[in-house]
Amino acid sequence: MSIRGKAHIAGIYEHPLREIPDRTLSQIHAEVALGALADAGLTLSDVDGYFCDATVPGMGGLSMVEYLGIRVRYLDNTETGGSSYLGHVGHAAAAIAAGKCSVALVTLAGKPRTSRGGNRGGMSDAPEGSFENLWGLFGAPYGYALAARRHMWEFGTTSEQLAEIKVAASLHAQHNPNALLQQVVTVDDVLGSPMISDPLHRLDCCVVTDGGGAVVVVSPEVARDLERRTAVVLGHGESQKHTDNGRVDLTYTGAVWSGPRAFEEAGVTQADVDYASIYDSFTITVMETIEDLGFCEKGEGGRFVLDGALVAPSGKLPFNTDGGGLCNNHPANRGGMTKILEAVRQLRGEAHPAVQVPDCEIALAHGTGGSLSTRMGSATLILGREDVR
Amino acid sequence: MTEPAELPAPAPQPNLETQPFWDATAEGRFLLKRCDTCGTVIWYPRFLCPDCHGTETSWFEASGRGTIYTFTIVRRGQGPYAGAAPYVAAYVTLDEGPTILTNIVGCPPEQVEIGQPVEVVWHDTGEGSALYRFRPVG
């Protein structure tokens, strides 16, 4: 496949100043963005792809899309030093050719001439930093606890219902000899574990583990010549959710956007999904994601997870059959890789026999990054068994 | 204006866009920005309006009142908050619209509830600024 003729550069802008001591990095990114878009006859509201390097202020592209007040379908933080922006244009063309975005914005900004220490960027310059780092919130649990509390208040969700998610994960982990936690737990065990950040208990939280994983993605031509059974990528969706100019709503995640995009591309529905790997940093992460992916109505997650709904092989939505991040593994504090791995095992029929979903044709894997519902990335993959067409 | 802190009050690190906000906190004034083009209240303060993308904005003084959107009780503090737990972190929806991260003070953590009306109190950082925190009203 070639991107030749599939994309065009429609607007350019060079900042006119050479010394800019009186503006922030964020502001300079915004100024050049507005300039190039104006040159093209477009506005920020038209932008659905954003490309930048790792020197942008804050948490990479997530902070910048929030600052700019945009929400894009394609975000690329590829960092390759001075050649980054050539790469970004190539990536943008490929993404456009593949239908992943239609207006891709690439920005670069720096103040090495007037800012001591040069182009700091990163979290130290996060535009939201001075309003969020003051309140004694350390580590991941607190943001998720804030979401859980609100979900309970709006929908009547209970700690017992959240605990059911941990119980299901533990029922799977008992079959995984590599799982960090292999012991089956009960709802009472979860509720009896120490409170970490109300209303989340220790057993509502994922494990902390070293480790890692990898996947190899190949073309159909390559795959055809391989003996090993593969999983075919049927659909992909991604999204960001941010504080949206103070319109904080902690009861849903970016999965409300990533999910439909993946389902549409794959041409399947929730009813077609035989197995789901659901990102499980905390029990509340799973509950909100199940709702947001459309496996039940918003607010019904608490009832959905009862009666072994998540337990393989016979539950209505078998999930995380490796034990997930809640029991098995959460390497480097990032659970996305392991979500893909277990989905592929299910599609190959190579999950543990006790938790293998019979005739598993369609699997979903969902990843969550950042802080739930406030500054987060979501990505949904839908995979098919090799013979799915 | 400001009163002694019952929680640690680490100093913020203002940047060129947020300096006016933090300067006003030293006088016990809670400033917000409003977009001159579409009228939207902007949070956090920045160069452009994240709603309409207009770049003309104006500061105004907020009421300092709001309601609790959600909260959690922190059981173990770190850094400047070591030894300060238990304390309450919360999102508060300001009467002017935006929902912002903060602490709830002035009442025992177990008495905090979603939906409670609150008002701002200022905790001096000792470095020319004050932190906005909120306490239940009435």
UniProtKB/TrEMBL annotation, chain A:
This is Acetyl-CoA acetyltransferase. The keyword Transferase applies. Residues 241-384 form the Thiolase C-terminal domain. Keywords: Transferase. GO terms for molecular function: acyltransferase activity, transferring groups other than amino-acyl groups. The keyword Electron transport does not apply. SUPFAM superfamilies: Thiolase-like.
